[in-house]
Amino acid sequence: MMNHRELLAQQIIEAGQFLYSRGWSPATSSNYSARLSETRALLTVSGKHKGQLGLDDVLVTDLEGNSLEPGKKPSAETLLHTQLYQWKPEIGAVLHTHSVNATVLSRMIADNALVLHDYELQKAFSGVTTHEGRVLVPIFENDQDITRLATQVQTWLDTHPDCVGYLIRGHGLYTWGARMSDALRQIEAFEFLFECELKILSIRT
Ligand SMILES: CSC[C@@H](O)[C@@H](O)C(=O)COP(=O)(O)O
Ligand SMILES: [Zn+2]
After folding, report:
1. In CATH, which of 3.40.225.10, 3.40.50.2000, 3.40.190.10, 1.25.40.10 is domain 4-204?
2. Ligand 1 center to residue 30 CA distance, Å?
3. Which residues does the record give as Zn(2+) binding sites (predicted)?
């Protein structure tokens, strides 16, 4: 019988296998997490191939982004996960991916946000019930200083409580959900919509 930590670690491992198989988490890119408790998260360690994770390739952090397992190297982007768990108590899983489409689209849009509208598939996002609204996806400039990047993200989250995900330019996507399955559904929906947007852009130009 698996304990709670092992169960969440298994979900993270399976998410990595799926996301790698779709080409959305190449090589050692990406990081994934699940909420362990009100004050703890379980996150992938840094630098591992995300399609080949094992039960030992995760570590516990507090929600300030501090590792509670000193022997392991935490993900470079730990803070971008834990800030989301602090932002909303109902978030139970966070996924960060590096797909070609997210990377290319984020470089093609000069604005600081991608606006998705009139897509039926927008309803795959938590809280969205119609194609008629606008789903605003902010695009932050990439930054190796994750504390500085997290500050930018926080400013957006504080003023956009309905945010369902964000892009980092030339880097990738962050999205989340109540459970791992919700976060995976949102990744898949984003990827579909990014592909649509890129096709529309290529026809227009
Ligand atoms: C392989 S480069 C990608 C990294 O720089 C980073 O953006 C990333 O997604 C994975 O970092 P990690 O420290 O393994 O969690
Ligand atoms: Zn990354």
Report:
1. 3.40.225.10
2. 5
3. 96, 98
